[in-house]
Amino acid sequence: MKNRRMFPMFVLAFLAVVFLGAAGIAQAQGPAATPAMAMDSLQRAIVAETWTLTPQRTATAGFTGLPLRICEGTYCGELAKMPIGTPVGILIDDREGWALVHVPSLNKYGWVNTNNIVF
Question: Which of 44, 68, 70, 80 has the most CB atoms in a 10 Å sphere around its CB?
Answer without folding.
Answer: 68
